[in-house]
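We modelled the chain as a single entity of 74 amino acids. Its sequence is:
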Amino acid sequence: MNTETIRREALSLPVQERAELAEQLLSSLDALSEAEIEQLWLQEAARRADELDRGLAQRIPADNVRGQAQAMLK
């Protein structure tokens, strides 16, 4: 079974079962080693860089993000 099939099936579950599954999946991440976590961050950084290179995402200046976050906290 591939990830897409699992995702589709998981999303078709009732809300309570999805919540329980999400909790179990998130808890399983706590057991990752530092090396595994670092590898996941490197993969995420590469994915984001690729999105920027392909024009699928835009850079947002840190000052803008900070300002938006502060406005949301008010």
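As a brief sanity check on the tokenised model: The longest helix spans residues 34-53. The radius of gyration is 17 Å.
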